[in-house]
Amino acid sequence: MTEPQHPQTPAHGLLAWQYCNKCLPLQVLQSRAGYYLGTCDQDGPVSRESVEYFLTADQAYAAHRSRAWTQRMEP
Length: 75
Hints:
By secondary structure, the chain is an alpha+beta fold. Helices cover 23% and strands 24% of the residues.
């Protein structure tokens, strides 16, 4: 059974779709700035979807699950 999707927190990256024409699932990713919600493919990161950076992976996963994050509107 799949979890219902909140219209403002997609299961796939909006920026990845809008700017790269790639339908990729949201994932917790890490950069030097911290953990964030974004997308990647076989070549590496594609988009950073969350405005926020999180200090830990657990915080990023919790934000993803609870939909407590903000969608970036531009890359």
